[in-house]
Amino acid sequence: MRDPYSVLGVAKTATEAEIKKAFRTLAKKFHPDQNQDDPGAQRQFSEANQAYEIVGDKEKRAKFDRGEIDADGKPRYAGGFGAGGPGAGGFSGFQDFDKSSGFRSRTESGGNYSGGGFDDILNDILGGFGGARRGRGPAGPGAAGAGTRQRATGAPPKKGQNADIIAHVSLEEVVNAGKTAVKLPSGKTVNVTIPAGTTEGETIRLRGQGHPGSDGGSAGDAMVEVRLKKHPLFEVRGYDLLLDLPLALYEAVLGAKVRTPTLTGAVNLTIPAHSSSGKIMRLKGKGLPTKTGGHGDLLVKLQITLPPHEDSELHTLMTAWRELTPYKARGPEFD
C-alpha cells in the first residue's frame, strides 16, 4: 500500500485531530453504500481504512515512523519480530491479512486497537447512510467494532430485485375508489392509489416494496401493471365507455325515458322518438378519468329488441305497414 500519510492527504507532522478529520472526509466520500456501482471508490475506501489503521493508532504510528512496520502493518525485519512469539522490541503476533475482506485485523495479541475512536467515526458515517443498525451490540465494544468493520468492508450492498405484480382492477375502482388492493412480496396487502388517466397495461412503481436486498442493500421496487377487468355492461374505448342499451320497439318509435346505468349511478336517458337501432347517444363525463383531470364520455348504443315471444297483432301490423308504408332500411352499398 502507498504511504498512509499520502493516502489520507496529511503531513507526517499532522495531529491526531487532523488525521481523524482526513479519514472521516475520505470515508464519507468513498463509502460503498454511496458508491455501489463504482469499484474504484470502494478500493479508495479500503485504502483509506488501511491507512487509518496505521497512523490513526498512536502505537502503530510510532512504529511506522520508526520504520519498524510498513504501510501494511507488517514487520520490516524478518528477524527479531513476531514470527514465533514476542521478541525483544518485536511484535506479539499481529494477525494475518484478511483476504476475504481486504482489511487487516484491528487487534494484536498484546492489546486492543486504540486508533482514536475508529468505531465512533465509522458508526457516525454509517449512521448517515441509514446504517444506525450497525451500532454496538450486546457482545461488548470489541464484538460490536468487529461487526461494524465486517459490514463496512465486506461485499458492497446489493439492491433487491424489482417485483412484477399484475393488478386486476375493476372499472368501478378506477372511477370511484381510485385505489386497488395489491399483495406485496412480503405478504402484506396494501391499497395502491391509481393515478388519474391510468389505462390498460400502464405500470405503477411502489418504491422499496419489491424483493429485499442483500448485504444491507435496499429493497427493490414493486412494479404494478394495471389490467382492467372485463365489465358485464361497459366496453372500454380509451377513456370512453360503450354501453349497449336495449329498447322495446315502441320505445324506439314513440320515444321514452329509459333508466341507464353508469359507473357512478343510473340516470334517466331521454330517447328521441323514431330512433333507429345502432344510434349512439353520448353522456358527457360519464367515462373514465383522464390525465388532464377530466373524464371521458359514456357512449350509449341503442339496440331495438323485439318481444321474447311471437305476437300475432304485431305480425298483422307489420304486414299492413309493409304494404302501406314500405321503406328501404339499407343503403345502395347493399344492393
TrEMBL record:
The keyword Transmembrane does not apply. The keyword Amino-acid biosynthesis does not apply. It comes from the Bacteria. Residues 56-77, 89-111, 132-161 are annotated as: Disordered. Residues 3-68 form the J domain. GO terms for cellular component: cytoplasm. Keywords: Chaperone. Residues 146-156 have a biased composition (Low complexity). Residues 132-145 have a biased composition (Gly residues). InterPro entries: DnaJ_C (IPR002939), DnaJ_domain (IPR001623), HSP40/DnaJ_pept-bd (IPR008971), J_dom_sf (IPR036869). PROSITE patterns: DNAJ_2. GO terms for molecular function: unfolded protein binding. This is J domain-containing protein. The lineage of its organism: Bacteria, Pseudomonadati, Pseudomonadota, Alphaproteobacteria, Hyphomicrobiales. Gene3D superfamilies: DnaJ domain, Urease metallochaperone UreE, N-terminal domain. GO terms for biological process: protein refolding.
